[in-house]
Design a protein that fits this description.
The protein is mostly helical and 132 residues long. The chain has a domain of 81 residues: Histone, subunit A (Orthogonal Bundle). It has three helices and two strands. The protein has a two-stranded antiparallel sheet with strand order 1-2. It is extended. InterPro entries: Histone-fold. One of its GO terms (molecular function) is protein heterodimerization activity. This is Histone H4.
């Protein structure tokens, strides 16, 4: 098989991912369960939350009985996932802002460094141990 050399890759342009195409980067349920266990939760209910009947005073008289139950449409894992996304978005937004408006040598940067992340965490009120 000698003489073939290294094959050249095609010269196609690399595309950036849309923010809306994040279906491959979701936090999976086992990872959420590990986080919950680490924080002290003993059990996480799977599936939809049970129906909650409306109070008697607010029940309309002309509505069928099947419509008197309000369902909580979100799963527990979906709620945890949305809170993690909100937290990460806030930290990354602060870190990018800190990097763009830096008055250090060379002016603003487009690369987020560890110092920017630490400052973003300080702004939110989180302490990080082991970093100066």
């Amino acid at each position: 098989m000698s003489g073939k050399g290294i094959k050249k890759k095609s010269a196609t342009a690399k595309r950036l991912l849309d923010a809306s195409r994040t279906h491959g980067r979701r936090v999976r349920n086992p990872a959420l369960l590990r986080l919950a266990r680490r924080s002290g939760v003993k059990r996480v209910k799977r599936g939809k939350l049970s129906p909650v009947p409306l109070p008697r005073a607010t029940q309309p008289t002309h509505t069928p009985a099947s419509a008197l139950l309000t369902y909580c449409k979100s799963d527990v894992y979906d709620e945890i996932r949305s809170e993690i996304e909100r937290f990460v978005d806030e930290i990354v937004r602060n870190a990018v802002t800190w990097a763009e408006h830096r008055e250090a040598i060379g002016g603003p940067r487009k690369t987020v460094m560890i110092g920017d992340m630490l400052q973003a965490l300080r702004v939110v009120g989180r302490k990080v141990w082991g970093w100066e």
